[in-house]
Write a structure and sequence with these properties.
Blueprint: H1 7-22, E1 37-38, E2 47-49, H2 52-59, H3 63-85, E3 91-97, E4 101-106, H4 108-117, H5 120-123, E5 131-135, H6 150-165, E6 169-174, H7 181-192, H8 198-201, H9 215-231, H10 233-247, H11 251-275, E7 280-281, H12 288-300, E8 304-307, E9 310-313, E10 322-325, H13 333-346, E11 352-356, H14 362-375, E12 383-387, E13 392-393, H15 410-431, H16 439-459, E14 467-468, H17 471-474, H18 482-497, H19 504-507, H20 517-527, H21 529-539, H22 542-562, H23 571-592
Parallel strand pairs: 5-6, 5-11, 6-7, 11-12, 13-14
Antiparallel strand pairs: 1-2, 2-4, 3-4, 8-9, 9-10
């Protein structure tokens, strides 16, 4: 990717060159890279630069004096560059405000030329792209997915899509909880209660799972098993032995464990299908054979030591150790996670490892990453990141639960959104006297709108913050919602459909119009698409992309209000703006996992 084709970088490079020219008497090594931000308000122009403040000590001058000399240099440099290259001038005007703030307004011909040459995919390609692993969702076997899995699943999937869009080879990994003591408890209880295990072992298709021991009943069995494990020491010992037998390869117990996993996967797959999530399961059991060799390797490297019978890694920057092996010889989550990290680096070639879990697990991942670095499993070429997030809250501002006080099942939450979406569609059809949709079409449209509304309501919030879940707000046509984005896209496509005998490829050859204020704002927003992608990619904060898409949709609707397209003298030039808007909205929605509809 050529950096200069990203608008902000091109403006930044010119500003930097002008600064060095204006203060050529200064040591070039002392001149830092200046900073540029998008203007917070339209009357400030298009970009703002506050670097004159930090340059005051270096140049030993008043910040405003620096800003004035710098802005003059930018104008002169821009004029000379335009004459030399026979290109458009970049700057329309440059103003100095207050103690030394520089407000930059770009010229319309320059913006129009930039949009005409733009190639969106290339502009968003990451030159550092390699292989990445995104670890997200991670439900537990023998338990239903609940609202607590919503954020990890939605955020993780959007990050997988984002990095893929930027050119990375991305593996979305579902690190399910499918191993450990809980399975010893469950298997022992099923066997001792005389439940017919033959029903569990027959067949492997979905039809064979629709039985009395489906996931709902399996959860009840798990609750009963936990009570026995807690209250009956003899049962607890038998359950622990069952774990050993399972891990040793007992064929009957292994088959029963696999059946339990299969029942859970069918339930998980229903949700992933509704959410359009693409993820590969590699649960805790996948790494079991790697635990002992990894622990031995860490011992041989001299960073793991025995403490009170347990094997731990002590790191000077942490008050607590990273525990690799318990005093009874058993392994835990820490062991599995360091083995999994090592596997992802060595066997999957991951250069960027992203873990999407709730913010409360930050310390665990800080310890994991520090241990991996101390062991030499990763180098400076690797990027390890914990993507934390806050809670989903109910109307009462507390953790989202059902009326009965239980944690809301994720399938119920999604189904309710789809049901409300369907009701809304039917009501709008009646109000505008449209023909009724076919049942299959209505169901699909309701799913798309309902699921997208849930996703966008989550992703448009800063992931580190808690947010209040509201069906009414997320299904609103006004405001920052998925439906508003869908409506804007439908409107844009409707304009293009009215252009007779004009294909998208032909429209792409038209020079975009960039004269009216709303045209200029729309062109500027379109050109800032790569900036939004880069910011989202670097911060792993999907709400940055959601903010951008909302502002783009607002700018497009202002353009639609102010500028006639069909039948106007500028029809072709404005059609180009509409087409670029469609392309960017569709790309952004795909990254966020939204599924737009063809009509609203």
């Amino acid at each position: 990717m050529q950096k200069q084709i990203i608008l902000k970088e091109e403006v930044l490079l010119r500003a930097q060159s002008a600064l060095e020219a204006a203060f050529s008497d200064a040591d070039s090594d002392d001149i830092p890279r200046v900073e540029l931000t998008q203007a917070t308000k339209s009357h400030f122009g298009h970009y703002q630069c506050n670097s004159a403040m930090s340059l005051a000590k270096i140049f030993k001058k008043n910040p405003r004096e620096i800003a004035l000399a710098w802005s003059d240099a930018m104008i002169l440099y821009d004029q000379n560059h335009a004459q030399t290259t026979k290109a458009c001038k970049m700057f329309e005007k440059i103003e100095v405000a207050g103690p030394g703030f520089i407000n930059i307004t770009l010229s319309s011909p320059f913006l129009s030329a930039k949009l005409k040459e733009a190639a969106w995919q290339q502009m968003c390609f990451d030159v550092h792209a390699s292989t990445a692993v995104v670890d997200y969702s991670s439900p537990n076997i023998a338990k239903q997915m609940h609202v607590g899995h919503l954020r990890s699943t939605i955020i993780g999937e959007s990050l997988r899509r984002l990095l893929t869009y930027c050119g990375w080879s991305v593996k979305g990994v579902n690190h399910v909880g499918d191993w450990g003591t809980q399975f010893g408890m469950l298997i022992t209880y099923i066997c001792e209660e005389g439940l017919d295990t033959e029903d569990w072992l027959l067949g492997s298709g979905k039809d064979s799972i629709d039985s009395a021991l489906a996931l709902e009943n399996l959860m009840q069995l798990y609750r009963s098993a936990r009570v026995s494990f807690t209250e009956d020491n003899a049962f607890a010992l038998r359950a622990k032995k069952a774990v050993v037998d399972l891990q040793s390869g007992n064929t009957v117990l292994r088959a029963l464990w696999e059946r339990i996993c299969e029942i859970s996967r069918v339930d998980f797959s229903k949700i992933y299908k509704m959410l359009q999530v693409e993820i590969e399961e590699k649960g805790e059991s996948f790494y079991q054979s790697m635990l002992a060799p990894t622990v031995k390797d860490l011992e041989e490297r001299g960073i793991a030591k025995i403490s009170d019978g347990a094997l731990c890694v002590f790191l000077p920057e942490f008050k607590i150790p990273y525990m690799l092996r318990k005093s009874d010889g058993g392994y835990n989550y820490d062991t599995t996670d360091i083995a999994a990290l090592r596997y992802r680096v060595d066997h999957e070639g991951a250069k960027r490892l992203i873990y999407v879990t709730d913010a409360g697990q930050k310390l665990h991942f800080d310890l994991l990453f520090a241990t991996a670095k101390a062991a030499g499993y990763v180098t400076e070429q690797h990027r390890l990141e914990h993507v934390g997030f806050g809670l989903v809250l109910g109307k009462d501002g507390k953790k989202f639960k059902t009326r009965e006080g239980e944690t809301e099942k994720l399938i119920d939450l999604i189904s309710e959104a789809v049901l409300r979406s369907k009701k809304m569609i039917v009501e709008r059809q009646s109000s505008v006297s449209q023909n009724e949709l076919e049942n299959s079409e209505l169901a699909e449209r309701a799913r798309r709108i309902g699921v997208s509304a849930v996703k966008y309501a989550d992703l448009s919030n800063d992931r580190m913050s808690d947010y209040q879940f509201s069906y009414d707000k997320m299904l609103a046509f006004e405001g920052n919602t998925a439906i508003f984005l869908f409506y804007s896209l439908v409107r844009a496509k409707s304009i293009l459909r009215k252009l007779k005998n004009c294909s998208y490829s032909e429209i792409e050859t038209f020079a975009p119009s960039c004269e009216q204020p709303s045209e200029i704002q729309l062109v500027l927003a379109l050109l800032q698409w790569p900036e939004a992608i880069a910011l989202t990619r670097d911060t792993l904060a999907p709400h940055r992309l959601a903010e951008y898409l909302y502002q783009l949709a607002c700018n497009f609707n202002h353009f639609f209000r102010d500028c006639k397209v069909h039948g106007d003298a500028k029809e072709s030039a404005r059609a180009r703006l509409v087409l670029e808007t469609v392309k960017v909205l569709e790309a952004g929605m795909h990254i966020l996992g939204l599924e737009p509809v063809e009509s609203m």
